[in-house]
Structure formats: C-alpha cells, structure tokens
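ingest -> validate -> predict -> emit
validate: passed (alphabet ok, no gaps, 400 aa)
predict: started
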Amino acid sequence: MSNKAPRGVRLVITLAGRRNAGKSSLINALAGQDVAIASETPGTTTDPVAKQYELLPLGPVTFYDTAGLDDEGELGALRVQATRKVLFRTDVALVVVDEKGLSPLEHELLEEMRGLGLPVVVVFNKTDVAAPNSKDISWCAEQGIRHVSVSSKTGNNVDGLKTAIIDSAPPEMLEEPVLAGDLIAEGDWVVCVVPIDLAAPKGRLILPQVQVLREILDSDALAVTVKEREVEEVLDGLHRKPTLVVTDSQVVMSVAGDVPEEIPLTTFSTLFARYKGDLDAFLEGAAAIDTLGDGARVLMCESCSHHPVADDIGRVKIPRWISQYTGRDLSFDFYAGHDFPDNLEQYDLAVHCGACMTNRREVLRRIRECRLRGVPITNYGIAISKVQGVLDRVVAPFGQ
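emit:
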C-alpha cells in the first residue's frame, strides 16, 4: 500500500451503489487486505472514506468507499449528498450492483455519472450468490457501459476489475505534462525575469522558477536570471537574441515593454497553466472576465494555505486589477483548501493559483468540476496577462 504519495498525484476511484452491495468488501478484495470495514449489516459505511492503494501500472490511487445511495431519513439524505459530492473529484466511478441487479436507482446514478462525463464501470458483485441478470448485461452492452462480474467474497475476477479500472482511466491523467522543454533547444539562450519583493521567499526562489531553470539546464540551454530592472541591459549585452524570455506575471507589463516584439515572451504562470492544468480552459476562463457585470462574484482559489502579505497577489493585487479592468463593482471571495465551496455555482468566475504545490491531476479535477457546475475558471497568471493587455503575446509561443 502506498501511503506517502501526495493526494494530488492519486487517481481517485469512487465506489457507489446501494447499501449492502458489497462496496467495502470489494475495496478489500482489490487491495488484497482488510482496509475497509465490511459487514452484512446495511449502512455500515456512513461517510465517504478514502483508502490508498498502489494499482499498477496507474501507480498510487485512492479508493473512496461511500454510503449507500438508498440510505433513508434525514441523516441518510446528508450521507447521500456527501457521496454525490465525492463524484465531482472522481476520475473513475464504480457502480457496485448486488445479486438483485440493476434497479431504477442504479439507472439514475449511471445517467448522472454519464452527464458528468465520468468514466464508469458497472460491477456486478456477489456472483457467488447469483449470476448477473442477462438483461442487465445486455443493457450495459447496448449503452456502451463497461461492466465486470466479480465476487468480492471469493475474489473471482477481481483482476478483471483492475484491468477495467486501468482501461477506464482518463487519458489526460496518464500523459506526461510539458513545461518549457518543447520551446527551447540545446544552446539556446533563455532569460528568466525574477522580481524580488515582499512576497518572495527569503533566501530562495519559488518553485515554478526553480523548475523552469532546471528544465532549461536539462535542455542544455543557457539560462540568464535577472530582476525586472535589468532586462534591457541584459538583452543589449547578449551577443544574440534569446530564444525565449520568461517573466513573473506581476511584472509582465513592464517586461513586455522592454522585450522587442520579435523575441518570444511568456510567464512562469502561463507555463504552469499547461503543465499543471489545461491552457485552453484557462484561456476560456480569462475571456469570461469581459462578461463580468456589477455584482458578479469571483472566487479566488488557493490550493494551499499561506500567510498573506500586505500586498498579496491573490487577495489584493489580482482583485484590484480585475476590478480596474472591468470597471465593475465585483465581489471577491477567498478559498484555500482541497475542495471547492458547496456554493460554487453561485460564482461567475473562479481564478486559481499557479498550483505550484499541487499535482496536475488535482488541477484537472478542479477544472472539470468548474465546467460541470457551469463556472469559468482561469489561473492567476493568465488573468493578470489578460487584464494588463498582454495575453495574446504571452500565449503566442504555444501557437495560441
């Protein structure tokens, strides 16, 4: 069992179904050990419970064991609500069905999952008690829904279920993301503009800057690191034009004025927008800034907690710049943590941090959740370039 991998790197696999369908027993069978409490008593699992596992070749995954969707009463309704909330951050969903077969509840759940765009596998469990109904098997085949018959009690075909999970994993979760290596080659000069202000950590650079510098070195290119006041001097002193200039987003407007148009320019945050997320989705979200009207609500999202400084980028600067750009009376809420607030649908725009401390899978989940709930999403750097009028230039190196 892999317990050390960060939450963000794990594929999330959620088991959902009626009470006593054998969800907890199935997790134990998949893991090969008792990691979930299993009982013949319906409703043993009351809240979503995360179980970590190493599922090769996917690597570390998290199984979510959930309460039965047929739970009853006021408390049961809250448990069902918690189960459905987990689906928003799920990568692969398993609908576990007992010997009674598919009921209207499973059909409703499958329809909901397909509406969310979730990869789903129907698991006909308890084959040691009864074989799956042939009509249910035919229905899944007609609907193009992957299905597997197993027995969590005997372990029959558990390996087949693992294969189905692997085959259902979203392709973007398995791809190696690109940072800057495709923009530079051996021998190229790259200028990195790194301002040193109150927000800069003492005695070191921030992680995105370090990662870009490392990739430049790995590409056998030459990196020149300067503060924003030294850009013109450095460009004049180089014996040939740099292949790329990468700047911190907070000074992008002044740097754009110092760097000739023929030299490609982008920002660390723009590089991270595609490395940690989906650049196209963030660009669509940035376009939504133009549609904000008086009273619009903007959610500023931080993936990790930090102590804000006097002129904090996410809590002060970006809200001020967006308000100045739109000329509208906007409302900004600030949220830090792994999950979005329950009232996400009430926002007209979400602006996410650069996600330097979060894995790409986590960011992709958040993008997907925003799309499912009808909320445009962009990131800090893309939003800054948008409102400062240089977005077209900073995305040009990517063919945008």
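Residues 1 and 164 are 20 Å apart (CA to CA).
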